[in-house]
Amino acid sequence: MDNEEHQKGSVTYNDRITDLPDDLKCNILAHLPLKEMVETSLLSRMWHYTWASIPNLVFNERNFMSIRELVRFVDMVLLLHQGPIFQFNICCLNFTHVPMERWMLVLSRNEIEEITIRSSLTYRWRICSCFFNIQSLKKVYLKYCTLILPHVFRGLKHLQTLHLNGCTISDNDFEKLVSHCPLLENLYTSNGKYGHEKCMIDVFGSLSKVETLRLGGAFIRYLLLRGCNLELPLKFEHLKELSIELAVHNQNEAYVAFFLLQNAPNVQYLSILNRPQGPDGLMPIRNLQNLNMQKIAFEHLKFVLIDYSGSVKESGLLLVKLLLSAAPLLEKVHIKNYEKDFEFVKKLVSFKRASKEAEVILFD
Fold it and tell me: 203 and 219: one domain?
């Protein structure tokens, strides 16, 4: 009797959320900031350590009352974490009192694949030497950091993507870093300090595996300052996507664009962003009209995007004309922000095309 009463009085509460598979719980928690993820898990004993297997860790100083609280939280997460860590992302204005070297050592033992470190312009963080020994790295994003390679640097053998935004690094270290990443496919640099600008040209000789290349106006102008005899250390045999910012009406800069294309025979996607042309001070070193187009062919070029973002002069149209005449596999040419002018459209239609499939599409 007592047994029956006990059974009747015993109630088991099951709910769908508690009994969810662990991988589904992880997917749900992954949509929350890491701090909220941990706090949410504490509400349920069944979910208590579900967060500990999340492979992508993102920390932002703004979510904490102080640097000390941030440090304690990161320490706890790394200590209790179970399983692999694929991504480590941290944003902190001042890394002075942050034990980054200790964290990098922990990450190096977890086969980390992607690291993002965002510092501030005022308090640039010097990347610790152990960072350069993490051989599992595939993607690195650094903002306002200082990079000094260790004396013994064996390279990052699996690195495919390197983004440096506002970073400081010497010429020799920059060239050494890039040349010792044999699988590097994407290199992005902006607002950085690399010693002498000549380094940027020398580094080109190490980009044999690069597939995507984006060049800003400052670099195009630097190429111009090298004078008429432009030479690059190699052809970009693996380059498939090229994005260039230039003044399309400037004969000098337009010539540089064609020069780069000639050194990238396998480019399939070309993007040209027009920028306002300021005072140049340079006489035209080459005239596009004088190019021998019989010797120029962009055999693999399929897609071209040109964003004029301003008035279109005769020299700006000439760029389109030359591309249409030298790309036998060209499929589409997208032209954005052009002047809505009948003469403009009339000239576009009259241009000869090496590809019968080439289609010119105009966007507002």
Answer: no
Count of domains observed in the chain: 2
The partner residues of 246 in beta bridges, in order of sequence, read 274
CATH number at residue 270: 3.80.10.10
Name 324's Cβ contacts closer than 8 Å, sequence gap at least 6: 330, 333, 351, 352, 353, 354, 355, 358, 360
Dihedral angle sign, alpha carbons of residues 213, 217, 219, 223:
positive
Looking at the fold, whether 199 and 303 belong to one and the same domain comes out as: no
Whether 364 is covered by a domain: the verdict is yes
Instruction: Please give the residue range of the domain that contains residue 343.
Output: 211-364
pLDDT tens string, the chain, 364 residues long: the values are: 455 555 555 555 555 656 666 666 666 666 666 667 666 666 666 666 677 778 889 999 888 888 899 999 999 889 988 888 999 999 988 888 889 999 999 998 888 999 999 988 777 889 999 999 999 999 999 999 999 999 999 999 999 999 998 898 888 898 889 889 989 888 888 776 665 555 666 666 566 677 888 887 777 776 776 654 555 556 788 889 999 888 877 777 777 788 788 888 899 999 988 876 654 444 444 555 555 555 667 889 999 998 877 656 666 677 888 889 889 999 999 988 776 767 777 888 888 898 999 998 887 6
